Amino acid sequence: MTYIKSFMKIKKMKEIRIEVPLSDEDIENLRSGDRVLITGVVYTLRDSANKRLLQLYKEGKDFPFPTRNSVIYYAAPTPPKPGHPLGSLGPTTASRMDVYVPFLLEKGIRGMIGKGKRSGKVQELIRKYRAIYFLAVGGAGAFLSQFVKEAKPIAFLDLGPEAIFEVHLEDFPALIAIDSYGESIWDKEKR
Questions:
Q1: pLDDT tens digits, one per residue of 134-152
Q2: How far is CA 143 from CA 52, 96, 135, in A?
Q3: How far is 47 from 97, CA to CA, in rounded Å?
Q4: pTM of this prediction?
Q5: Domain 2-190 annotated CATH 3.20.130.10
Q6: pLDDT at residue 191 above 80?
Q7: Which residues contact 171 (CB under 8 A, 6 or more apart)?
Q8: Do the strands 71-73 and 164-178 form a parallel or antiparallel pair, or are they unpaired?
């Protein structure tokens, strides 16, 4: 729990509340290093589901969720305990998904939640498409699940936990790792 508390105190400033779908104003005002509380619907997206979305994209077919100004969360929920919408919902390593970022941003995705650094190419794409990369606490899936108010699988159900889930978040804590200007928290560390 100390790691989580440290994460939430990275910057001595108030948390910024944002709503999903993201507005242009929110995106323009967020800077790398800002702490945010995310409320709204996000869509989980892991390796297998990304591959299927890429195939839909190549075939010119619609996606199973709205993409315009949406946020995806690189996560796969565990089964829920009684009375809870889902079990653990921790972020997975986002760099594994870098190959899929170009078509997702082209389709209108404006935010991605995950853990770890992204490639320089993805950082440039985030700047080009005026998107955001949110960093969530790795290894804290049980903690993060308390910010989930509702969840349901919506596509590719045969993938089990890697299906796409529609997840309703309320005040989900995250850090802006790469802002829409292409500035990352790792760039700031180097300086």
A1: 999 877 777 888 899 999 9
A2: 30, 23, 15
A3: 7
A4: 0.90
A5: yes
A6: no
A7: 17, 37, 38, 39, 147
A8: unpaired
